[in-house]
Amino acid sequence: MTAAASPAARQELLGLPLPKLAAALADALDRPFRARQIYDAIHRRGAGDFGAMTDLPAALRRTLAARFSLDLPTLTERIDSGDGTTKYLLRLADGSSIETVDIPERSRRTLCLSSQAGCALACAFCVTGYWGAGRNLSAAEIVGQVRLLRAIAALPDTFNLVFMGMGEPMLNLPALADALEVLGESLALRRITISTAGVVPGIDELASWARRPNLAVSLHAPDDERRSRLMPVNRTWPLAELVEALARFPLEPRRRITIEYLLLEGFNDSSRDADALVRRLARVPVKFNLIPFNPDPVLPDWMRRPGPERVEVFRARLEARWRRTVT
Ligand code: SF4
Questions:
Q1: Whether residue 206 sits in one domain with residue 253
Q2: 3, 25, 70, 237: least CB-packed within 10 angstroms?
Q3: One domain, residues 37 and 174
């Protein structure tokens, strides 16, 4: 009889690419080809527990269930906003909390995933940053967010993933690499975007990957003084260094780096700021995504959301200077 490990002691399998899964399972398997069988059951057929793998001998299924885990995060709360977006608050095995957001748009569906529980980068406009550092998620916890939402959110076959939830993904690249390899079994890499606050070594490491997802960068100000005020990470990797890293980032044909730009009334939303932004990024193939600020009681009072007209004036100026559509 196989002694069952405690839930915390069972090894997570959900985030393991095939070679790592085979290594993890090696001493439990009667035959090596079983690793491929188990991998396909998990990632191609969506098996959520070992009992469902009826092509395996019953004794092996019991051994696997005792020693390994396919557990998903636990849903603790679902918050529907008026615009169709749904935020799922999830609890991990150690009690940490994360969030995953489901964003339906006209012609596509996007899941916004967390890469860390908490975040040490302390961006001034971010509620996660306000609450401070936590820990890196495992690859299984990253993959688990997608699998849970597949189970509860009626997702279409094809959707987009963006790592723009809790945490800075570039500070958790090893887990992200494993998770993307696994998620890549059912989603094209061009549907996946890693969004960074500007961690230059992470951007360079991503640039070295043989197969890369899309890159997005939160810029939020056209000069170092204001960017450092919003994002302390800018003191470590100031704009000139960041823009250099973006300029050397290898892109597939017709691909662009997304520049996320948070609009704060009276702070970074003038026509002069739009002009400065375009000058700053003149050498980089980018597209812009404007995000009007969302106030929250824990965030500073001086941060205000600009009205729709102000946003449109900024957008029009950016489009005129950039000669492209801005979303
Ligand atoms: S890096 Fe992202 S999660 Fe971290 S504090 Fe900044 S905006 Fe928030």
A1: yes
A2: 3
A3: no
Ligand 1 atom with the smallest distance to the CA of 168 is 1
Measured in angstroms, how far is the CA atom of residue 190 from the centroid of ligand 1? 23
Which of the four pLDDT bands, split at 50, 70 and 90, describes residue 7? low
Beta-ladder partners of 109: 104
184 CA distance to ligand 1 centroid (A)? Answer: 25
Count CB atoms within 10 A of the CB of residue 202: 22
Q: Where are the beta strands (DSSP E) in 223-320?
A: 257-263, 286-292
Q: Domain limits at 207?
A: 74-322
Ligand 1: residues with CB < 6 A are: 119, 121-123, 126, 128-129, 166-168, 197
Residue 191 lies in a domain: yes
Same-domain check for residues 48 and 101: no
| Distance in angstroms (rounded) separating the CA atoms of residues 146 and 256 | 25
Q: What is the number of the ligand 1 atom nearest to the C-alpha of 126?
A: 8
pLDDT at 277 over 60: yes
- Say how far apart CA 320 and CA 316 lie, in whole Å: 6
Q: Are residues 118 and 172 in the same domain?
A: yes
Q: Is residue 182 part of a domain?
A: yes
Query: What average pLDDT does the segment 139-144 reach?
Result: 98
- 195 and 300 both lie in a single domain: yes
Which atom of ligand 1 is least distant from the CA of 122? 5
Half-sphere exposure of 134 (CA within 13 A, CB side): 23
Would you say residue 3 has pLDDT above 60?
no
27 and 105 assigned to the same domain: no
Q: Which residues of 43-82 are buried (b: 16+ CB within 10 A; e: fewer)?
A: beeebbebeebeebeeebbbbbbebbbbbbbeeeeeeeee
> What CATH number should be reported for the domain holding residue 280?
3.20.20.70
Ligand 1 atom 3 nearest Cα: 167
The per-residue pLDDT for range 251-272, each reduced to its tens digit, is: 999 999 999 999 999 999 999 9
Average pLDDT over every residue of 173-177: 97
Residues 45, 132 within the same domain: no
